[in-house]
Amino acid sequence: MATVIPLTDLRAAPPATAREAFIRDATRAPRADGVALVDTRNRPLHDLRISVTDRCNFRCVYCMPKDVYGRDFPFLPHAALLTFEEITRVARIFVGHGVRKIRLTGGEPLLRKNLERLIHMLASLGDIDLTLTTNGALLGRKARALRDAGLRRVTVSLDALDDPTFRAMNDVDFPVRRVLDGIDAAHAAGFSPIKINAVVKRGLNEHAIVPLARHFRGSGHIVRFIEYMDVGHTNGWRMNDVVPAAEIVETIDRAFPLDPIEPNYAGEVAQRWRYRDNHQEVGVIASVTQAFCRDCTRARLSTDGKLYTCLFADAGYDVRMLLRDGFDDAEIGNAIAAIWRLRADRYSEIRAANTPREKRIEMSYIGG
Ligand code: SF4
C-alpha cells in the first residue's frame, strides 16, 4: 500500500523531514499570487484527475483482476470518500493554481450516486475542460444528464469489438453491444468527438486493433490505443506483454495508411495520427516505450482525498485531513503549491530502476 504523508502535523509536531518543513512553511506563508507554479522540471500544474470512487462494475484483467478484487475486497467506506462539496473546494483551489482541465475517473465514476450534481458544481468553477473516463456500461442511461449538468467531453474504454475478447478482458461477461449503445447515446446527447481508449495486451487483444480502427475510422470518434502499463502491483505486468506503440501504428498502417499529425498542446498524452484517405484521427499512448514525463502536467486526487503527483506514485499527501481539520483555502492552497514545487516525478523515463511495485498505488484507486 502506498505511503501517506500526513499534513495535519503542520500545526502541531515539528516536521519529520525537510520536505514536510518546506510544506509546513509554505502553508503558513502568504499566498504568492502571480508566481507561476511549476515543479522542479518546470512543468506547470494544468490537469487534475479526480477519482470519485474506488469501485467498479468491471474486473478488467490489466487493472482490477478478479482474484484480487473479489467479493471481500475492502473497498473504501462511504465516510472515507470526499464529499462533492470537498471535491469542489479542492478543485477550486487547483483552478486557482492554474488547472484548466479536470478529468473525473474511478474505479468507474458513473457508479458514484448523483454524479451529475458534482459535475454541475465543478462546471460552475469557470472555463474548465471538464471531462470523464468511463467503461461505458452505464453511459446509455446517464449520457443526457451528464451533458445537461455541464460535462464537456467523455472518454470511453473499449478494448475489443468481438464479444469473446471483450468479455474476457472485462471479466464480468459484459457485452460489447451495450458499450457501443452507450457511445451512441453520448453522441446523441452532444458529446463529440468521443475518445475511445483501448489497452492492448499481447496475447489477449492485439487482434482487436484493426477491427477497432475499422469500426471507428469513419465515425468522427477518436480511438487511442494504450500500451499496457505496470501501474500498481496486482496486474502481473511483464514487459513481454506490452505491444509497443510503434507496432500498433504499423499494424494499423498496413490496413489503413497513416500520417503523423502535430499534438494539440504540449503535454498531450496521445501521439496523433490520421488516416491518409479520410483524415480521421487515431492515437497511441506510449507510456512504456516512449515516455512523456517531460511535459507531464497532471496531478491526481484519490477518492479519499490523497494527492498524488504521478500515476506510478508510492506516496500521497493527505489533503482530506487539511479539509476536515479546519485549514482554510489559503493554507490548503499553499500546501498544494509546495507539494507541486517539490515534484520531480518521471517514472516512465526511469522505469527500470524503480520503486518496488508493492508500494505503488493501484489504477482502480487513482484512475488513469
Ligand atoms: S510516469 Fe508519472 S510523471 Fe511520467 S507521464 Fe506518467 S504520471 Fe507523468
Give the topology.
Blueprint: E1 3-5, H1 18-28, E2 47-51, H2 84-96, E3 101-105, H3 115-123, E4 129-134, H4 139-149, E5 153-157, H5 163-170, H6 176-188, E6 195-200, H7 209-216, E7 222-227, H8 245-255, E8 258-261, E9 271-275, E10 281-285, E11 298-301, E12 306-308, E13 315-318, H9 319-324, H10 329-341, H11 363-366
Parallel strand pairs: 1-13, 2-3, 2-11, 3-4, 4-5, 5-6, 6-7, 7-10
Antiparallel strand pairs: 8-9, 9-10, 11-12, 12-13
The structure holds iron/sulfur cluster (SF4).
Can you describe this structure in just a few lines?
By secondary structure, this protein is α/β, with parallel strands linked by helices. It has helices spanning 18-28, 84-96, 115-123, 139-149, 163-170, 176-188, 209-216, 245-255, 319-324, 329-341, 363-366, and strands at 3-5, 47-51, 101-105, 129-134, 153-157, 195-200, 222-227, 258-261, 271-275, 281-285, 298-301, 306-308, 315-318.
